[in-house]
Amino acid sequence: MTASEIDRSERLHSLDALRGAALLLGVVLHAAMSFFPTQIWIVADDQRSVWASGLFFVIHVFRMASFFLIAGLFAHMMLNRRGVGGFIRNRLIRITAPFGVFWTPVMAAIIAVLIWNASLQGLTAADAPPPPTYDWTNIPLTHLWFLWVLMLFYAGFVILRAGFKALDGKGDGARTLDRLTAGLIGPWGPFVLGAPLAVALWFEPNWIAFFGIPTPDHGLIPNVSATVGFGLAFAFGVMLDRRRDLLSRIQAWTPVYLGLAVGAGAAALMLAGGPNPHLAPLTDPTIKACAAAAFGVATYAAMFAAVGLALRFASGRSAVRRYLADASYWIYIVHLPLVMAAQVLVQDWSLPWFVKLAVVVAGVLAVSVASYELLIRHSFMGRWLNGRRVPWRQPRQPTLAPAE
């Protein structure tokens, strides 16, 4: 058995942990938004800090690119194992169905929190602006947008793979892609991958640079920058699954990737106006071009650094990491209205912002983990969302009687 085959036989604990961490960090990211020095969130706390916006920026740079890289890698692995039919069936159950089932109650809960917060501020229905008219171009996908984008990427992956296999009868194209994947592992990789994203960001109308890749949370057609930025990460994950041996090279380059991420990220932050968010679009074409280039490099350098750090520090088996990775899907689905409700509760407390942030995050995680344990993990919902249902009690291993 080759080294590559050995790698494929092992569960990628490190990337599973990184996937879970990316989802769980969404709780921290959204919780920090009420503490921004400039109000950007419906809940505005009376304690503000540039450190809160800085924390948001650091998480936002690498989180979703890392998630989509792992999604692409696991998608390629699953399609090879289950075939096209099994892959489509699994993704319909695990991705499409949760989006369809949970979008309405999550949206209703968000609206309920908004109404509650408005009533606490002394506002009435007469003070509310007229409701917007929604259609397929602006429907609010909320934080569940990543499920919709995943569905689009999966569909594109299946279609493109089928066409590629039909045209690449001798396998020359596949071998070329494998060499291309290997060639992208190194300090130059973030620059090569970041170039298309930089171009997309530069052409993005009304681009607010602080937020990097614009979140495609409104409308059924993702914006070009998100399609390019996250699509490249997903595609690289697909190719990386063919070359599992390259994971060790990514790990070896981790210090360099981390340095690039810090340098390019700091440049991007300064060009975007600093940690005190500048919420107006960049108008100077030179500054916009430099900011777009910095964000392109920072996004993929941080993505590679996150993968390398996960490989270095989370490659072994861990019951705690496996539990949190399993729970992270459910936690992310339900967390946003809970975060908003917790922000409303603490917004007038006379405590430092970081204490209130810790209270919000800890409270939301406590409620979410409890609901996962009681409602999801041991029920049919666990099989639906995680692919397996864990019994409440593990069966005891039979003991052998001593020989006489």
Automatic annotation (TrEMBL):
GO terms for molecular function: acyltransferase activity. It comes from the Bacteria. Pfam families: Acyl_transf_3. InterPro entries: Acyl_transf_3_dom, Glucan_succinyl_AcylTrfase. The chain crosses the membrane at residues 21-44, 50-74, 95-119, 139-160, 180-203, 223-240, 252-272, 292-315, 327-347, 353-375. Residues 13-372 form the Acyltransferase domain. Keywords: Acyltransferase, Membrane, Transferase, Transmembrane, Transmembrane helix. This is Acyltransferase family protein. It comes from Brevundimonas nasdae.
